[in-house]
Write a structure and sequence with these properties.
The chain has 494 residues and is α/β, with parallel strands linked by helices. Helix content is 27%, strand content 24%.
């Protein structure tokens, strides 16, 4: 046995000799030879004990270098092998042994000396930490570095037939769909992988920003297996030669910039031709908020708010008592708060299909979405208009209804965009046929111009863009300097 890099014990063939060459009087037939080695006499010529002892010692003197004479371990046979017991006694009398190990009855009869020595080496203490290399992203600077996680400490030792386990929770990164690498070393490698002995490279599939709890199994020095979290069995590791470990460790991204926190505001038109129309908009809003709340990037910091709006009534003005025009605005907050508010919003019947009270909703959103950000706060604010009809004009033109309160939706829009709010629409504008072709054309031109201005930052269609589709486009993206990280992460990125 020798010690290699990382203090790992290696079994080496110190030499062997055929029984017939050692003691020519032994029978060439294996079964009869075993009978003789066990001390059997029968009708065969007896084996001279003295000559056998002398032959064994002569061979040992020839094969054991003088430098090894004081570092011998004697592996003795099971009881009953008379000649082998004599050979063991001769060795004891001739050499100073470091240790002596008897073959146990629990070993398989067909096990070889090599198998027994391999089992013995598994009980040797670890001379170096067995270390898993992961990646870590600094939460402040975004710099990515290697992180060393000690699975099994130096000095750990197993009993014969025993194993040890270590559980580690690893985290997925972003920008990569392939399984992540999990290199294991004997020792503590430098950032480029030098200075320690690579043992094996495992791989594990972890979704982006998700996590997995893994179990590593130590079977002996240098033997670290990974248990498949799905089946509980040990998967086959990557061949070290197939993985360029220095390139793997030195190829980390330089920096990963976290995406801004998402604040989403909705305006929802609650007047419709029937209850199904309004409920479709509310269902979309609920599903959109739930999808974003589940998403790994947006979920932890997501804040959502909304304003629901109903139609104005005939002859309404600033001096009359008005019915409810807006639902109480929901400021940016947890998704659960908005979901609870949406459950109480109700449908009302619309009486015309030219304009809604969207201008009032936009005016109510301005103080919610355009409020100053906190010092150093990285926030991405989006207003999504969920409606059918464009806002009313502040003043009467042609046949398009005006806002009885004189709200100017273009002023509100400019205030929102000046505050850095991205305004988008999810609308299906349709104008009813009018008695006058001229007035119908004017209404259509106004609707098209209004939706184009409101949709300058992006738009969605109810018949083609699902809530999941919309959520996918609203999620802020990571900014990565360098290649995607192929190592699993030691801590969550968010």
């Amino acid at each position: 046995m020798t010690l290699g890099e990382g203090g790992l014990p290696h079994q080496a063939d110190a030499g062997s000799i055929d029984w017939r060459s050692l003691a020519p009087t032994l029978d060439p037939h294996p079964e009869i030879r075993r009978f003789q080695l066990a001390g059997g006499i029968g009708t065969l010529p007896p084996i001279s004990r003295g000559e056998f002892d002398a032959a064994v010692l002569h061979w040992l003197k020839a094969y054991i270098p003088p430098s090894y004479e004081h570092s011998l371990l004697l592996l003795t046979p099971r009881p009953g092998w008379v000649l082998l017991e004599r050979a063991a006694a001769a060795v004891r009398n001739t050499y100073t042994l470091r240790a002596e190990l008897g073959r146990g009855d629990e070993e398989a009869p067909q096990s070889t000396t090599e198998d027994t020595v391999a089992e013995l080496l598994r009980t040797a203490p670890l001379l170096a930490d067995h270390t898993l290399v992961l990646a870590r992203c600094d939460q402040e600077t975004g710099k990515v570095r290697t992180h060393l996680h000690v699975l099994f400490s130096a000095g750990s030792r197993l009993r014969r037939g025993e194993t040890a386990t270590a559980q580690v929770t690893v985290h997925g990164g972003v920008g990569i769909t392939q399984p992540l690498y999990l290199p294991v070393f004997a020792g503590r490698p430098a950032p480029d992988g030098t200075g320690a002995q690579p043992l094996t490279v495992h791989r594990v599939a972890v979704d982006a920003l998700d996590q997995a709890t893994l179990t590593f199994v130590l079977r002996g020095p240098g033997e670290v297996a990974l248990t498949d979290p799905r089946t509980g069995t040990a998967p086959v590791p990557e061949q070290r030669a197939a993985v360029d470990i220095p390139a793997l460790l030195s190829g980390l991204p330089h920096r990963m910039v976290r995406p801004p926190r998402l604040e989403l505001f909705l305006t929802i038109e609650l007047s419709g031709a029937d209850r199904a129309e309004t409920e479709e908009r509310l269902a979309f809003a609920r599903e959109l908020v739930a999808t974003l709340a589940r998403h790994g990037t947006t979920g932890p910091g997501l804040r959502v708010g909304a304003v629901g709006h109903y139609d104005h009534v005939i002859r309404e003005n600033s001096h009359t008592v008005r019915p409810r025009l807006l639902e109480p605005p929901v400021p940016a907050g947890p998704a659960s708060v908005l979901t609870a508010a949406l459950a109480g919003w109700r449908h009302t019947q619309r009486t015309q299909d030219l304009a809604s009270s969207l201008e009032d909703a936009l005016d109510a959103v301005v103080p919610l979405a355009a409020s100053p950000r906190g010092a150093g706060e990285n926030v991405h604010r989006v207003l999504l208009i969920v409606a059918r009809r464009p806002p009313g004009r502040p003043q009467q033109h042609d046949s398009v209804p005006t806002c009885p309160l004189g709200r100017d939706w273009q002023l509100a829009l400019r205030q929102l965009r000046a505050a850095g709010v991205r305004v988008m629409t999810r609308a299906d504008p349709v104008a009813e046929p009018q008695p006058s072709i001229r007035s119908a054309a004017a209404a259509r031109r106004y609707a098209d111009a209004a939706w184009a201005e409101l949709s300058a930052d992006g738009s969605y269609r109810p018949d083609t863009d699902s809530a999941a589709d919309v959520a996918g486009t609203l999620v802020p993206s990571w900014h990565m300097e360098g290649p995607p990280c192929r190592l699993a992460f030691a801590t969550p990125l968010l």
